[in-house]
Design goal:
single chain, about 325 residues, alpha+beta, DNA Cyclobutane Dipyrimidine Photolyase, subunit A, domain 3, 4-stranded antiparallel sheet, two-stranded antiparallel sheet, about 5% strand, flat
Length: about 325
């Protein structure tokens, strides 16, 4: 089997390979060594995406096929769960795994991959020229100023990018492609047959949603966080860039409840184009390294900046996210007694 298919299972060539094979979904579910291996790897693929990184290990022949077939199986498992957060997190993990491989590819191959996603481009020496209408939808997600159109070189409507930048834009294209295609319409019989795997994935997903471990600072139960803060955390974990006001709100909140600088920096690691030095500088400024420690914004301020999301009944009884956190923590302590 062409190993490239296993590295890029979301491409049309990979889909055609799967369709031409004699390995139907029913045959995979019917049992057998190959089918079991595909199902196990599909489940593992989703769980790894929840943990933050899809780890791939390739061999030739059958091992590469297992990796390839596990991709559509993983999409089916995710569709059975139909959780928006999981879909976003999975799409991000698959795109990042593909991007790691793209760095090793030739200009020609990356150009062909760009055509797969309809990115209009021209190879220009060792660079690519992308029409600005194809550049903006993907570059707009990047926080680094270098991605802003005003900071780019334009040539008759085309933006000039180097090989590494083109691969980074392709990562966003892959993420869009995977995310927009989910969930699939899964027949009830297939969903039932995969129920053990679905249950195991759900357990990992719920664990991630309910717990947020922060090293030596202790254990923080995110169920005690107000909905606005949980929303911001989930946005980061699914690879979204936060606006400045949202980053300030989240960082100051976490600092106010006692989270250390290192742990707060780690919280942002899943952000696209994460820059540890810049993030640490911003965190240090907010937590008070410069002499002034900031308090998290009030509910009214959160609403003003559009960061008040998903109100719960308790929200009507507090005026500050920190008050929500303290009240919920006290309620949980009383329950434990």
């Amino acid at each position: 089997m062409e190993l490239k298919f296993a590295h890029y299972p979301f491409t049309s060539d990979a889909s055609k390979y799967v369709e031409r094979s004699n390995k139907s979904l029913d045959s995979l579910l019917a049992g057998g060594e190959f089918g079991k291996a595909v199902i196990d790897r599909g489940k593992e693929r989703v769980i790894q995406s929840i943990e933050g990184e899809i780890r791939k290990s390739f061999g030739d022949g059958v091992l590469a096929e297992i990796e390839l077939f596990s991709y559509p199986l993983a999409r089916i498992l995710i569709s059975c769960i139909d959780d928006h957060y999981l879909i976003r997190k999975y799409a991000l993990a698959e795109a990042e795994a593909a991007h790691a491989q793209m760095k090793q590819e030739t200009l020609r191959f990356l150009g062909e991959l760009g055509e797969e996603f309809g990115i209009e481009h021209v190879v220009h020496g060792r660079d690519f020229k992308i029409h600005f209408t194809h550049y903006l939808p993907f570059a707009s997600r990047m926080r680094d100023p270098k991605w802003k159109l005003v900071n780019r070189r334009l040539d008759d409507g085309y933006v000039v990018v180097n090989k590494g930048e083109f691969a980074r834009l392709l990562q966003e294209a892959v993420r869009n492609n995977i995310q927009d295609a989910l969930p699939l319409d899964v027949p009830e019989g297939i969903s039932k047959a995969l129920s053990p795997q679905v249950m195991e994935i759900k357990q990992h997903l719920e664990k991630l949603k309910s717990e947020f471990k922060i090293g030596e600072s202790g254990r923080v139960d995110s169920n005690c966080f107000p909905p606005c803060i949980r929303h911001l955390l989930m946005a980061i974990q699914t690879g979204q860039n936060l606006a400045h006001s949202a980053r300030f709100a989240l960082t100051s909140f976490l600092a106010n409840i006692g989270m250390g600088e290192d742990d707060i920096v780690e919280t942002y690691r899943a952000s696209p184009d994460f820059d540890e030095e810049r993030t640490r500088y911003q965190v240090q400024h907010i937590v008070g390294s410069s002499g002034t420690a900031y308090t998290a914004p009030s509910c009214a301020t959160m609403a003003t900046y559009g960061n008040c999301v998903g109100k719960e009944p308790m929200c009507s009884r507090v005026s500050h996210p920190l008050n929500f956190y303290r009240k919920r923590m006290n309620m949980d302590k009383k329950k434990e007694k």
